[in-house]
């Protein structure tokens, strides 16, 4: 299996350490990563939709309507999220490997811990904030171009 990049191993380590006090730290880590990756996929969708509308306005309307009809069904949307969570579980979770992540990063000094925590929180919150910023900025720009 491919070794994850160091920053990603660190994200898993931090999320796991933060949620170890709970009964289900693995579910918390997988759930958090699923949420963040879902929002990142939505961000990518917004960017692709923007460029599609900008360069192919007639074709994009058909595609947008089809995707919108598909995602308006809450059961299908829920199924996508559950499938993404299951995929994350099988791709990312390995008890032995996660124990290696704990060993790899347990020697952090307090400064490194603080800096690492800030970076992980920035990644998690930044991914979600980026979605809303990009959605607002790109579609306001598009509306401005159409008028």
Topology:
Blueprint: H1 6-19, H2 25-55, H3 57-72, H4 74-92, H5 95-105, H6 110-146
Provide a descriptive summary of the structure in words.
- With 147 residues, the chain is mostly helical.
- The protein has one domain (6-146).
- The protein has six helices and no strands.
- The protein has helices spanning 6-19, 25-55, 57-72, 74-92, 95-105, 110-146.
- Helix 1 packs across helix 2 (25-55) and helix 2 (25-55) runs parallel beside helix 6.
- The chain starts with 5 loop residues before the first helix and ends with a helix.
- The mean pLDDT is 83.
Could you provide a short overview of the structure?
This protein is an all-alpha fold and 147 residues long.
Describe the structure using short key phrases.
147 residues; mainly alpha
Characterize the biggest β-sheet.
none
The protein's oligomeric status is: single chain
* Average pLDDT for all residues: 83
C-alpha Rg (nearest Å): 19 Å
Give the number of helices. Answer: 6
Number of strands: 0
Proportion in helices? over 70%
Task: Please trace the helix and strand order, writing H or E for each element.
Answer: HHHHHH
What coarse outline follows from CA principal-axis ratios? elongated
How much beta, percentage-wise?
under 5%
Weakly predicted, low-confidence segments: none
Number of domains: 1
Q: What is the structural class?
A: mainly alpha
């Amino acid at each position: 299996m491919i070794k994850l990049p160091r920053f990603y191993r660190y994200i898993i380590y931090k999320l796991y350490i933060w949620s170890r006090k709970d009964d289900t730290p693995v579910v918390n880590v997988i759930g958090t990563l699923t949420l963040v990756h879902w929002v990142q996929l939505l961000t990518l969708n917004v960017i692709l939709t923007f460029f599609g509308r900008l360069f192919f306005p007639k074709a994009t309307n058909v595609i947008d309507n089809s995707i919108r009809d598909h995602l308006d069904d809450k059961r299908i949307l829920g199924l996508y999220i559950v499938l993404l969570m299951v995929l994350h579980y099988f791709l990312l979770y390995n008890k032995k490997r996660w124990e290696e992540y704990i060993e790899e990063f347990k020697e952090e000094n307090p400064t490194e811990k603080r800096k690492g925590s800030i970076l992980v929180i920035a990644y998690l919150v930044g991914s979600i904030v980026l979605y809303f910023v990009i959605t607002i900025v790109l579609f306001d720009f598009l509306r401005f171009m159409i008028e």
